[in-house]
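Q: What structure does this chain adopt?
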Amino acid sequence: MIIGENVISTTGGDGDGCGNGRVMAALDTVMTAVKAKVMTTAVAVAFARATVMAIVMALAAASAIALALAFTAAATAQAQAEAELGGDLQAQILYAYQTEDTNSLASLIQNLTAQLKDDSSNASLHYHLAHAQYRMGLIAGGSRERVAEAALADCIDELKPLLQQDVKSVEALVLQSACYSALADHKKIESLVLRSRASDRLKEASDLAPRNPRVVFESAVSGLARSKPNSADHQLAFAQLQLAAQLFDASSATSIDSPGWGHAEAYLALGRELVLRGDRLGARNWIEKSLIVAPEYKAAQRQLALLAKP
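A:
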């Protein structure tokens, strides 16, 4: 500051203004530090907020993932339970058929019909009911004509909703074909129409899945039934039957997946055809194989007993 004519430096300097510059520089340094501190604090707060949000979002994502995994596990468990139930129903139907137990089959048909009243859209139940009705029709045969006709007609009708929902359902097509064909054996007047429908369904199934073992087996059975022995058509049908047995060999007879029927029947059919061709050893092998798959299969037991006779 100036008193009279003397210049007094607040910094003890030489009075040329450098002291003031140093003061201003010092102030700038202090202000920069303060601003930096403030900015550092703001950044820290922002970082903390971002970190908290990230943690919250991560926890939410983790919860969503965990929830999704839980739903997936539940859905998988339900699907497996339904598959096991389907496999169990199939096993019961086949066992009742193979042991020729019409009472058990009737009970299964009654129970499945009751279940469908509560769950009419269940395609699996419709299929199993149709399968049980088909087996009842085969067992009843000529001894209980009306029962057989009613069961086979019910089988055809039971599969119609499935085919309306999915016209490309191979398993529904081949089972309905088998029911039409079996019903034609009972209704002579309508046999031509019924066999035509059976052939149409089987062709559709064959076009969709030419190596499905049930499709090939039913094609072979149909071919053998309508062709003359030693004819070219008969030979072709026999070749199809052999192929069906090979295809069944490549698929599981005990899988919980449904449908999976036909193994024991195909092996027995091949054994019977080999008997007609004079190959008793080959016939025995296939009939015994049928009994390995289904030890209580009465038709195979009878065939093996006949083969044992001289």
